[in-house]
Design a protein that fits this description.
- By secondary structure, this protein is α+β, with helices and mostly antiparallel strands.
- 41% of the residues lie in helices and 17% in strands.
- The strands form three sheets. It has a seven-stranded antiparallel beta sheet. A five-stranded mixed beta sheet has the order 10-9-8-11-12.
- Strand 13 and strand 14 form a beta hairpin.
- The radius of gyration is 28 Å and the shape is elongated.
- The protein starts with a strand and ends in a 6-residue tail after the last helix.
């Protein structure tokens, strides 16, 4: 399994200049490759392959006065920029053909030097190295100071240096781990109903209150954004104000991510199987609850549950979003119909009184167990049985036509 480990790095002012140069060169190569392929398409020429693109934009470009400064950075960084361009085109074509699931992917766009987030990638060919003193040695950059929070489980295959909008630098290592991280099996299983008032309601009745990190920081963000709006565009004070806003948002995102990591780890550790509802976050993001939906971060939380379950040897599954979990009585199975959001509890005609969220979590657990048991090869629906010939039509002529077709003779 491939894992990614992120660590904070602290480059010196000189190293920041070298990283900025590498960011710029990678951006230029990416834009040159995109422009060259767009021009070839507009002129009706053939698609430019990867080898030819690398030769024209890197090898031959370094020999010209206009692109001679490309030789000041590692060639691997430039090659990886073209690899990112190829990945963007591949995702776009697969999305058009239907091979890629999910939302439609747009064609590649030009990268801007004004983007607040910049990234470059080094592979093993660049011969980057983690030194004995804990520093990260990068070609044509130097030895970067890294704050190690834990050790890497194996030798990294690549490392990406990322500069975020807040001006922080991170080193993202990709490692392949072979060690067995499976947890001891337990008997409990849980279904999770995600919401806004309560972030998660478990099938055992546990309710986790939504922390609403963005709502709590709204007053400070409002003040910082008002200060930003008063700054003149292009001035140094505006750049400082942009960085302050970015740091405030990064603090909110980091706090939310840390809280979700702790909650997801506890759920995976205590349960052998975890089932959640497959919510349409993009659709809910177009409603009046958009701010609260994105503040909750359901998508990132379910992604954490999924990969942590795979590492720990647990079972994870998503329940169909169209399953009537909030309308079904968990005691008798009666579907009582849709209910407005202000109805938080209801009584079934069978006499059972349900809390809306707890009842939905119990139904998510039952639906997840049912789907998982049927995924092992059990017959869910009755097998198709050929209909008798006397039932193939309602008129004698229809019966005759259907019979002739079934025998391989074209129908009249």
């Amino acid at each position: 399994m491939q894992l990614r480990y992120n660590f904070r790095v602290y480059p010196t002012p000189g190293q920041q200049i070298e990283l900025a140069r590498a960011f710029g060169c990678a951006r230029v190569v990416f834009n040159d490759g995109l422009r060259l392929r767009q021009q070839a398409r507009e002129q009706g020429e053939r698609y430019i392959g990867d080898a030819e693109l690398s030769r024209r934009l890197i090898t031959e470009a370094k020999l010209t006065p206009q692109r001679a400064w490309l030789g000041e950075v590692s060639a691997v960084v430039l090659q990886q920029a073209l690899a990112d361009l190829n990945t963007a085109y591949r995702n776009f074509f697969n999305s058009l053909s239907g091979k890629r699931r999910g939302r439609r992917v747009a064609p590649p766009r030009f990268r801007s030097r004004k983007d607040n987030r910049q990234a470059i990638r080094f592979t093993k060919n660049s011969r980057f190295k983690v030194l004995d003193n804990g520093r990260l040695r990068l070609p044509k950059v130097g030895d970067l100071a890294v704050r190690w929070s834990r050790s890497l489980p194996s030798e990294p295959s690549s490392v990406a240096i990322i500069r975020d909008a807040a001006g922080r630098y991170f080193a993202s290592f990709v490692v392949t781990t072979q060690q067995d991280e499976a947890l001891p099996p337990v008997d409990s299983e849980v279904g999770i109903d995600l919401g806004l008032t309560h972030f998660a309601v478990l099938s055992d009745g546990t309710k986790v209150t939504a922390p609403t990190f963005l709502r709590r920081a709204a007053r400070k963000l409002k003040r910082l954004q008002q200060d930003l709006s008063r700054k003149q565009r292009g001035s140094s004070n505006r750049k400082k104000a942009v960085k302050k806003v970015a740091r405030a948002h990064a603090r909110v995102a980091d706090t939310r991510r840390d809280w979700q990591h702790k909650l997801s780890t506890a759920i995976i550790r205590d349960n052998q199987a975890v089932y959640v509802e497959d919510l349409c976050v993009a659709g809910l993001g177009r409603t009046r609850l958009a701010k609260s939906v994105y503040d909750a971060g359901w998508a990132s939380f379910t992604a954490m549950l999924e990969y942590k379950a795979a590492r720990a040897g647990r079972r994870f599954a998503k329940v169909n979003r169209f399953a009537p979990t909030s309308q079904t009585c968990s005691a008798c199975g009666r579907i009582d119909g849709p209910k407005p959001l202000n109805v938080r509890s209801w009584t079934c005609p069978c006499g059972a009184t349900h809390d809306r969220d707890v009842n939905a979590a119990i139904n998510v657990l039952a639906q997840g167990r049912w789907d998982n048991s049927n995924a092992c090869g059990a017959q869910v629906r009755p097998a198709s049985v050929p209909a008798p010939r006397r039932e193939t039509g309602i008129r004698p002529s229809a019966t005759r036509c259907s019979t002739r077709s079934a025998e391989g003779i074209p129908a009249l």
